[in-house]
Every structure is written in C-alpha cells, then in structure tokens.
C-alpha cells in the first residue's frame, strides 16, 4: 500500500515541478515527456523523463537550446544512459555539465567535448582560430551538435534495452508506474487535504495552553511547600504529587522568560531547595 502511494506521490510531484518550471507550456511538455517514455517502451518512466526536463530546462534555455533541439538532447541522453546502464538522472546530469563546459562529466558516456577537442578537432578543426573568442551560448550550440553527432550510435538504445531481462523488468516497472500514477491523483489529493487539515490543527493549537497547565501544577507545588513551612514541617518527596519531578524536568524546555520568572520563587526545604535550572 505504501509503495503504491509513493508511486502516486512521485507522479504528482513530477507534475507539480513541471508546472512550476514550464508554466503555461506545462501541458505540451507533459505530453512530450509521456510520448518519449512510451517511445522507449517505458524503459525510463514518465517521472524519470520529467526529471530530465525539469533539471535542464532553465540552463538549456539560457544557452538557446530550445524546442526540437532540446527534446532531441533529452532523448539522446536517455539513449546514451541506457547504452551505459545508467539512470536517466545520471545521464542527463552528465550531459548538462558537458554543455556548460565541464566536459569530463560526459566522458563516461563516450562523448568528448573538452575545449581542446572542440577547438582543434570538432568540425574538422574549423573552430581552431575562433573558439576562444566565442561566447558561452555559441559554444553550447557547437557542443550540442557534437553531442548529437558522437552519440548517434546510441540512438534508440533505450527501446532496444528492453530486449534484455533486466531491461524488460525495468520496462515493466516503468509501465506500472506510468499507469498507476495518473490513477492515484484523486487519492493523493484527498490524502493531502487530510494531512493539511491535521497540520493546520497542530499549528493553531497554542503552545501557551500547555505551558499554562504546567505553570498551574508548579504553582500548586509551591503552595504545598509554603503550607508545609508555615506549619513547621518539611514536605517529603512522598507527599508531593507524583508528577512533581516530571514537571520540574519539563521546565528546561520552557521559554527563557518563563524560566526567569520561576527562578524568582523562594527556595524551599526538602525537594525544592535548589532553584530550577
């Protein structure tokens, strides 16, 4: 049951993250993510593809990698990850780092995108004289072309990976998640409403109510001791209320201003001879 609820939570969280990232374009991007997952036979589930979109959307937009190019980049990251038996999260993180110029991250995927390569070998060395003068956006554009060129051999690998037992099981689990996620939306909405209701009740219950109860009990203890002193006898621990030692221990967690007030009480014989610390 808990695992089922977790699947629903992951799906719901993915939708929320996509709506916060893509705003008015959320519907179309969600549709593209679902289509991409189906194309690779759910080897990577919708939630995994959604992560890739959310993780890289802002950075790639800054570099001008948008629209069809952006979709191709995410899909190629999935195929490259499948070829290397990586989670899509790891694969897209590596490619995003490479697009920023941190080329070492992509080497495990079989991609060479460091500055030396881009300057001297990419595009037949055509960038040798101009690479250092290019801005980051232009460099990212050239790196995108290299990513697509060098990873061409991996195209479709995510779908082909389902031909192995491990891949088939991964595909099955992805299909289950993609079917259950949408079906659990109403349940999750109801559960969220109950949780928020309980949380609201806790937040609106004043802490002072509990503190006042403790103060009342401490005042009762004080009165008992004063009565004992006036009658000339000590108050033994046996005659004190059973909760007295617990109440004194609890004062350590009271607000400082209340503790200072308590410290002004006169010390007393017996069990109350030491001020509250």
Name the features:
277 residues, 2 domains, 66% helix, disordered C terminus
Structure characterization notes:
The protein has 277 residues and is mainly α. The chain folds into 2 domains: 2-185, no CATH class; 207-272, no CATH class. It contains 13 helices and no strands. Residues 256-277 have low confidence and may be disordered. Helices cover 66% and strands 0% of the residues.
What's the short story on this structure?
This protein has 277 residues and is an all-alpha fold. The protein has 13 helices and no strands.
Topology overview:
Blueprint (H helix, E strand, L loop, with lengths): L1 H21 L3 H14 L6 H17 L4 H17 L4 H12 L15 H6 L15 H15 L6 H4 L4 H19 L1 H20 L2 H24 L13 H7 L5 H8 L14
Helix pairs in contact: 1-2, 1-3, 1-9, 2-3, 3-5, 4-5, 11-12
Main sheet properties: none
Termini gap:
48 Å
Instruction: Give the uncertain stretches in residue-range form.
Output: 256-277
Order of helices and strands: HHHHHHHHHHHHH
The gross shape turns out to be: elongated
Report Rg: 32 Å
Strand content: under 5%
Q: Provide the domain count.
A: 2
What's the number of helices? Answer: 13
Secondary structural class = mainly alpha
Q: What percentage of residues falls in helices of 4 or more residues?
A: 55-70%
How confident overall, as mean pLDDT?
Answer: 85
Oligomer: single chain
The tally of strands reads 0
């Amino acid at each position: 049951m808990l695992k089922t609820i977790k699947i629903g939570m992951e799906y719901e969280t993915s939708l929320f993250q996509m709506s916060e990232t893509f705003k008015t374009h959320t519907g179309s991007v969600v549709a593209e993510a679902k289509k991409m997952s189906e194309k690779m036979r759910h080897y990577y589930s919708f939630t995994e593809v959604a992560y890739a979109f959310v993780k890289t959307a802002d950075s790639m937009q800054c570099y001008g990698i948008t629209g069809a190019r952006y979709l191709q980049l995410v899909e190629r990251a999935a195929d490259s990850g499948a070829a290397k038996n990586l989670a899509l999260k790891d694969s897209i993180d590596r490619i995003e780092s490479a697009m920023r110029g941190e080329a070492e991250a992509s080497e495990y995927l079989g991609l060479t995108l460091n500055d030396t390569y881009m300057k001297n070998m990419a595009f037949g060395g055509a960038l040798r004289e101009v690479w250092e003068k290019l801005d980051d956006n232009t460099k990212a554009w050239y790196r995108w072309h290299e990513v697509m060129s060098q990873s061409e051999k991996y195209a479709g690998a995510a779908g082909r990976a389902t031909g192995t037992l491990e891949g088939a099981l991964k595909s099955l689990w992805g299909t289950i998640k993609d079917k259950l996620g949408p079906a659990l939306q109403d349940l999750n909405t109801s559960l969220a409403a109950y949780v928020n209701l309980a949380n609201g009740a806790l937040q609106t219950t004043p802490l002072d109510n509990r503190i006042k109860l403790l103060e009342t009990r401490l005042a009762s203890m004080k009165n008992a001791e004063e009565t004992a002193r006036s009658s000339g006898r000590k108050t033994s621990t046996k005659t004190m209320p059973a909760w007295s030692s617990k109440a004194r221990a609890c004062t350590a967690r009271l607000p400082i201003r209340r503790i200072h007030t308590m410290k002004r009480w006169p010390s007393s014989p017996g069990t109350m001879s030491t001020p509250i610390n």
